[in-house]
Specification:
The chain is α+β, with helices and mostly antiparallel strands and about 170 residues long. The chain is built from seven helices and five strands. Helix 2 packs antiparallel against helix 5 and helix 5 (about 90-105) crosses helix 6.
């Protein structure tokens, strides 16, 4: 039960797991409700792709505990739809968090990341190693988001296409 309590103390919106692996500064800014995604063409393209992909699926955008939004839920799996595989590690860890979260609720599923534009998918299973990575990520998110100042901006390949580019580098 101690693990369950620790999990309850460290529950976060799933996008924060993704941001942890994309950019720690973005994670901090988002956690302080400083958001620019509503102005981002990349975010809009991702939403359009998601809305028009897999139209025959019935259980799309399933919100669990007002924290995680699963793109597609089926009997044996959860599926996340992504625009591109450029942020593969972040995508995988986001799905691993979903699987870990569901496991804490007594639900076992496999994860699938669909990259419809690339016509490929990644099938994932929660392993003990990934469970440890998720636990570590949750603690790191807690540490970053409780800081009084953001982590410094660090130049990355993705910066120019990030919704926060002008904020960090303008």
């Amino acid at each position: 039960m101690e693990n369950y309590q620790e999990f309850n103390d460290l529950k976060f919106q799933s996008i924060k797991i993704n941001y942890l692996y994309v950019c720690k500064r973005k994670l901090w800014l988002f956690s302080k409700n400083i958001t620019f995604e509503n102005r981002s063409d990349k975010v809009l393209l991702g939403k359009v792709l998601h809305e028009h992909s897999y139209p025959k699926e019935n259980k799309k955008e399933v919100l669990i505990d007002n924290l995680i939004m699963i793109d597609i839920l089926s009997d044996g799996s959860i599926r996340e739809v992504k625009y591109s595989s450029k942020m593969k590690e972040a995508d995988i860890m986001q799905v691993m968090y979903y699987l870990y979260y569901l496991k804490q609720r007594g639900i076992q599923k496999q994860g699938i990341i669909n990259y419809p534009k690339e016509k490929r998918k990644e099938v994932l299973r929660l392993t003990p190693e990934y469970e440890e990575k998720v636990k570590h990520a949750l603690k790191e998110i807690e540490e970053i988001t409780t800081r009084s100042i953001p982590p410094p901006a660090t130049k990355q390949k993705i910066c120019k296409s990030c919704a926060y580019f002008e904020f960090c580098w303008g």
